[in-house]
Amino acid sequence: MLIYSIGIALLNAGTRVAALFNRKARLQIKGHNSIFKTLKNQVVQGDRYLWFHASSLGEFEQGRIIMETIRRDYPQYRILLTFYSPSGYEVRKNYDGADIVCYMPFDLKFNARRFLNLCNIEKAFFIKYEFWPNFLRELSKRSIQTYSVSSIFRKDQYIFKKTGRFMRRALKTFTHFYVQDSNSKELLESIGINRVTIVGDTRADRVIQIAGQAAELPLVEKFASDCKVFIAGSSWPADEELFIPLMNQRQGWKMIIAPHVIDENHLKMIEGMLEGRRFARYSGLTADSDTQNLDCLIIDCFGLLSSIYRYGNIAYIGGGFGAGIHNTLEAAVYGIPVIFGPNNKRFREALQLIEQGGGFEITDSHSLRMTVDKFISDPAFLEQSGKAAGDYVMSNNGVSERIVASLNL
How far from 110 is each of 116, 134, 135, CA to CA, in Å? Predict the structure, then answer.
C-alpha cells in the first residue's frame, strides 16, 4: 500500500510537470487546483449527498441514468459528481443532473480525508473500473456505504494476481457490487467477495432513453429516403481504409461517416477516399440543401451520432483496430446489425451481440466484404440480424431501476 501511495504521489507530480507541455494535463491540474474551493463554496451543510465518480465520459453515461432516476424519485438527496479525466469533466462540467461537478483528487490519504470532511456523503458510487484504495479505506472507516456499478472483471486483471493483494483488500470494503455478467461474479467470489448482484450494463437503459429522445434530422432523413444506408460511427483511419473502398463499389447504398476525430486533415483524407461519390459535410448544409442527390454525408460536428443511427440499415462501429471499439449499443438500439473490429474482447456487450446474432466481428477487408455482401444479398438475414441487435438491447432494459430499488433510499 505504501508503494501504491508513493506511485500516486509521483503521478500527481508527473502530471503537474506534464501540464507545462500538454493541454490535457494542464486542464486536469487546473481542475484539481479548484476541487476543495469548489466544495467549500458549493456544499450545503446539513444536506445529504450521494457521490458518483466516473473516470471519463463513457463511465459517466453508465452512471447517468442512475443519477437521474434518483433525482426524479428521491429529490431529498443532492448529487455530487466527480471525474478523473478531463475528457469527461470538460464535456459534463455543466451537467444539470448533479448539484456539484468537479474532479476527484488524486488517491492520497490526506486528499481522501479532506474531501470527505467537506461533504456529508451518505452513499458513494464508483462506475465500472474505478477502484481507489485510499478513498475506499476512508469511506469504510466512516461507515459510508459504497457501491461498484456496472463493473466487469476479467481473469487476466492484476486484481486476481499475486501483485494485486492490496487491491483485493480494497475491493472488500465495497458494500455491494452490481456487475455486468456471471463471470465477474464468479471471479469476485473466488477472492472471498460475495456481496454481488448480476444486473447487466446500465448503458442499455441510457441508449433506450436516448433513442426515445432522438432528434429529428430532416436533412439526414431526406438523404436516406430512397436508399439503404451504411453508417460508420466513431471511425478512425484504420477503419476508413477498410469500409470506404468497399462501399464506394456498392451501388444502391449510401454512406454516413461520423469520424471520431474531427479535424481538417482527417476530413480531407476521408474526402480524398470517396472516389466517384457525391458528398457533403453536414456543417456546410442549409435547410434547402438537396441531400437526396448525395451519396455520402460526412458528420463533422459532435452530438448527432446517436440520433443519426436511426436512419441506417447497417452500422460500423470504429475503434476495433485501435484502443477498442466505441459504443455498439447506440446503434443496436435501433434494430440494425453492428460490425466492428477485433479489439472487442473487453466489451461484454459486443461479445453478447455476436452470440445473439446482432454483432459481427471483422478482422480485415476480406471479412468486412463477406459480411457486408451477405447483408446486401440476403435482405432476410439483414432484417433478422437487426432484430437480434435490438432485442439484445431491450432485454437489458430496467437495470438502473433495479439498482436504485435495492438501495433502500
Answer: 10, 9, 10
